[in-house]
Specification:
heterodimer; A: mainly alpha; two-stranded antiparallel sheet; 26 helices; 5 strands; B: mainly alpha; 13 helices
Amino acid sequence: MILVTAGLVLMLAGGAFAVSLRRWPLLAGRVYLGFFLLGGLSTAIPAAAVLAGATLPELRLATNVPGGEWVFGLDPLSALFVLAIAGVGSCAAIYGVSYLAGGRSAGRVATAHAILALLVAALMAVVIAQAAVPFLIAWEFMAITAYLLIVYEADRPDVRHAGILYLVATHAGTLALFALFALWGNGARDLTFASLAQRAPLPAATATFLLVLAFFGFGMKAGMVPLHFWLPSAHAAAPSHVSAVLSGVMIKMGIYGLMRVIVLMGAPPVWAGWVLLGLGVVSGLLGVVWALTQHEIKRLLAYHSVENIGIILLGLGAGILGMSYGHPLVAVLGFAGAALHTMNHALFKSLLFLGAGSVIHATMKRDIDKLGGLARSMPVTAAVFLVGSVAIVGLPPLNGFISEWLVMRALLVGATNMERGRLAVLAVVGLALIGALALACFAKVTGILFLGTAREKESAGNVHESPRGMVGPMVALAGACIAIGMAPVLVMRPLSRVAYMLAGLQADPRGGLADAAPATALSVLLAIGFVVAAGLAIVIRRGRSRPRAGTWSCGHAPATPRMQYTASSFASPLLLAFRGVAGVHVTRTAQEFATHTRDPVLEGVVFRASRWVRATSDRLRPIQKGRLSLYLLYIVATLVALLGWLLLTGMEP
Amino acid sequence: MNVNALLTLAVLLLAAPAVPGIAVRTKSMLSGRRGAPVLQLYYDIAKLLRKGSVYSTTSTWVFRIGPWVVLAALLAATLLLPLDGTRAVLRFEGDLVAFAGLLALGRFALVLCGLDTGSSFEGMGASREVTIAVFAEPALFLCFITLVLATGDVSMSGMLGAPLVEAWPRAAASLTLVGISLFVLLLAENSRVPVDDPATHLELTMIHEVIVLDHSGPDLAAILYASALKLSVFGALVVSVFAPRTGLGPVASIAILLAGIGLVAVAVGIVESLTARLRLNRVPQLLVGAAVLAAFGIILLLG
């Protein structure tokens, strides 16, 4: 724990240096990065050790605050998230230094660096806190620092709107968490997680109420449907390296919270598994359909976070069902899938956001329908973005496939072994549909953005590859995606520690998930296929002529860039099929075909509700006139009413 | 890894290009023409392999590696099929997810190739390809789930191997529905009538052929071979469901497999002669129909 604490201090020191040295931006950036990376490393080392099987002593601070000691500790669950935060945070910090350089005033850039350091430290504190009070304090720190980063470009009105929406949503969620821990602590010795866990098994009614609060509070942060409405605008508004942290790790705090609740509760009721499975399918499907309707690249990626949260929830649901129906293998597989997908999504989603940032940095455009052909001017960005796309769609041989395979395997094994709960296997069909839609969506993004030719002339001009400080982190993240995908054996054993902990089992060194044979077979299989095809390609193509010509236009006039397929046209057959839930507005004239989108939940439910609240409050407004005499009258009236009530109830206090 | 599995795999890889030829020959015989030789595709591939490739000035490296990724994905997927009726070259728990994933990888690579040319023809084909896949993928998984429930085994080798033989008497109705559903998926996944028309060229009506319009030389050969292999792989799936084979010698097993795939190809030719291509917005209905058939299979098993 000393290393972890030292890491947090180093990161915060880096942030402080960034601000104090702001007069010399180049130096400030270097010192900030040096401290930040050192901090990231010193938190990652103990986390990796814990995942490898070590146990570390807890850090206990006696305080006078109600709620008992402040306990900090690293168990496998915390360690997994610390590792993700350290990795994604470091990549985002490196990227951010180049991304923000030269944009705005040095002072604002320095403040943004310092706040990012604070956010990453707060995220770490959330996952190492083992008591409710420090957990909630860290949670609020995280929420507020994230808000400050989201409104970095506060001169744009849409950014300010996104910020307010985020702030309202996150506080509504936090309120539920306060209620959750207050209710849970009622009857426990104090508010440390260990004491909360001792209340298990909870009475059924209490457990139900706690789970509803947890689903609301943590679900709001995770962005599961229908509580996702704040997420797309907030993630699109933030600077890209911040979006990477928000989408990659901050929304995972909701998942962390749910996992922690599962661990503390011991044996969650069966219905929780079914509800999570249902929420997972709904979030996954609606998230990807809504993503398909988007043409603004960062909003599109943000909706994909909703989709991937859905896949993680599917894993959690399968795990709980496995626990409840007494099938440990299903439980372990489901939880392992959820845990690995959390890690994977942190990697590939931050990679994609950083890639989107590079595109925006180079072209100053966010609308994919205006771009095209960037693979030529930005080859590295195109390559890593393609890696990220293949990973997020869940295609072999990359990491997204491994986690989706674990989740599906849990559900399929459950179908053959669990007497009750076999119907859960139908979630596999949902997952298949989600995967196919995600493939369509990322074919659209990668194809329209990087392939073909530029759709607007001026965007073809001085577009350039990003500087090394931005390319480096993306390459590192892509490398991690490939490593986990090609050699899943590497992660199986650490992962099984997390999964066994979630399933409430003692780690079994032989059976279940630690058996890495299937994963090895998978790697071998893919390696064979690719080696054979690559060999064929090389042998056959040797010494052949390769003339270049225009694209074959079937004998018609040569194609112009304006004749290319656009994102709107590419997605239109699918949106037609899903028009019931997509919320798309189509403009179709003789010259133009375009689609515009709105979020059905945000505009249909949240805005309508808030309009109703405002209209109702307006009717109460006459009470507030701002005249002193009126308020005195209210006070007198209240006093009279109270006296009258005392008289009626017989003068007893 | 057993010798029989490798042997059968080799035979299938060699025989694959003849399968589309059988379908075409059936079609031409039914319409009273002589038609192209069954082995035409071998000649085409041999010719293309001797040529160079022309690349569009618009296209990038994605276009060049695409066809080989398609081929690699299909080769890897073939390794998972229990072609000799008992076990595949590679098997592991949940490998059916890998099978579907590899087919999807091939599709992704092909679609990106199409978009890389910057032609609106190919963009249109790419868009239609992914749209159809969205409806085909859940149907494929429903078929697999029915097989998993019927056999109690979560691997391709199990659910299409020995346990399937025992499952037939218990679950004949479900398995028949799955077989029919898989045949419809074969038509859709391999771009045959009534979903797509492989016979047309330079028309706006087609899907697969239009995506590969700009490929030439060895690249096109890789795609043509991969398409033929995909048809054979789906044929082998249908044959494995309807004629699970265990306890036969390798020769008999291979003979049954090849004869079965040949019959499937003839059936494809017959379907293509009897029906017209569906309007594009009717295709999802056909695939949802296939999915519903498989779902009925599940209901029968759970009931």
